[in-house]
Amino acid sequence: MPRLTDIQIRSWIKASERFEGRSDGNGLYLRYRETDRSPTWRFRYKFAGKSRVMLIASYSELSLAKAREAAKELSARVALGYDVAAEKQGRKAEALEKIETEKNAMRVSELAAEYFERQILPRWKHPDILRRRIDKDINPHIGNMKVEDVKPRHIDDMLKSIVDRGAPTIATDVLRWTRRIFDYGIKRHALDINPCSAFEVADAGGKEIARDRWLTKDELIKLFQAMRKAKGFSRQNEITFKLLLALCVRKMELCAARWEEFDLDNAIWHLPEERIKNGDAIDIPLAPPVIEWLKELLSFSCNSPWILPARKMQNRMIPHIQESTLPVALAKVRAEMPEVPNFTIHDFRRTARTHLAALGIDPVVAERCLNHRIKGVEGIYNRHQYLNERRIALDKWAELLISLENG
């Protein structure tokens, strides 16, 4: 029987001529059934006295010359005692198992999300602190890795990148939380060894020098001007920054605030203990400009219970804006004031405390405006809240801010 030719095969395809099998010799033949989309190369052989057939490839994938080479190699393996069809099935099964294993493998981002949702959200006053570390520092470096593939070198690279950007304290926090996440993974039987176990605090960067940055009156004037002209900087962000300055509160205390906490008629914000860093609930007096800013925010809130509701769909289960939103907004403002030395939102509290002192506010009252505890023996016995004194102090501070904004 003559061997096949490419001209013959192409003519059969063109004429849609169907057939069960046409041999080329050496076990190689071409099949083109009615149900076949294109002709397929197959290899027929005998193994342990039984006839065996295996699919090689379609004609569109493998030319006649290449199919002959493949059949020659298969014949040689059969001669050596190998069941080539069974080998192919085994390789296919291994490939499918590998795909399935890869698909079902737990990633670090998934483990971190589970740890956050099960261990942090139900228990923590400020869960967004860890959420920010996961999103900003852990996931970008190792989030897409399978948990069992993470090695100490990956942890080292992650910590080094954080230290290199000038944040050794954050590197220490990331090490601590990453270790806890992997410990949780061990309990879940997702991995056997914690890749963070060999690292000490010193490996993460150690302590960071305390900041002493605050904004002068001239810098505050430039800040207000920059907020008005910064591209992409919303009115909500502008009001938020003014509130942080005027109220002397921490970012998270404002970001997670609910309207039910505010008594605008009596000009009081009842800040509950579960949302305060030191756990001390406090009533914060609201200066007249602050009340006006809050009323403007209320008009933006679309009946949300949060004064700063989340501005887009999030997968973090947090319905209000996150702390991480504010530094991004600040970067837009900073771009408009390149001549001013760098500052952060946390520097707003130091700014407020410094200007309160300059306004002649009693140090104890000024400290209570920031909800700092009174130190020493006096702090133990003096439980006075200085509400009236703080109202006078914060009214003066708000008046100064308005004068600088309009100056």
Shape type = elongated
CATH architecture call of the largest domain = Orthogonal Bundle
Any idea of the CATH class of the largest domain? Mainly Alpha
The CATH homology group name of the largest domain: Intergrase catalytic core
| Class computed from helices, strands and strand pairing | alpha+beta
Q: What percentage of residues falls in helices of 4 or more residues?
A: 40-55%
Major beta sheet summary: 4 strands, antiparallel
Spatial order of the strands forming the largest sheet: 1-2-3-4
Q: What integer value in Å does the Rg equal?
A: 35 Å
**Could you say how many structural domains there are in total?**
3
- CATH fold title of the largest domain: hpI Integrase, Chain A
Mean pLDDT: 87
Percentage beta strand: 5-15%
The helix count comes to 17
Question: How many β-strand runs?
Answer: 7
Q: Helix-strand pattern, N to C? A: HEEEEHHHHHHHHHHEEEHHHHHH
Low-pLDDT runs of 5+ residues are none
**Through-space gap between termini:** 101 Å
Summed up, what is this model?
By secondary structure, the chain is an alpha+beta fold. The chain has 17 helices and seven strands.
Topology:
Layout: H1 6-14, E1 19-25, E2 28-32, E3 40-47, E4 50-58, H2 64-79, H3 84-104, H4 108-120, H5 128-142, H6 152-164, H7 168-187, H8 201-204, H9 217-229, H10 235-247, H11 251-255, E5 262-263, E6 268-271, E7 282-285, H12 288-300, H13 325-334, H14 347-358, H15 363-369, H16 376-381, H17 387-406
Antiparallel strand pairs: 1-2, 2-3, 3-4, 5-6, 6-7
Features:
407 residues; alpha+beta; Double Stranded RNA Binding Domain; DNA polymerase, domain 1; hpI Integrase, Chain A; four-stranded antiparallel β-sheet; three-stranded antiparallel β-sheet; 17 helices
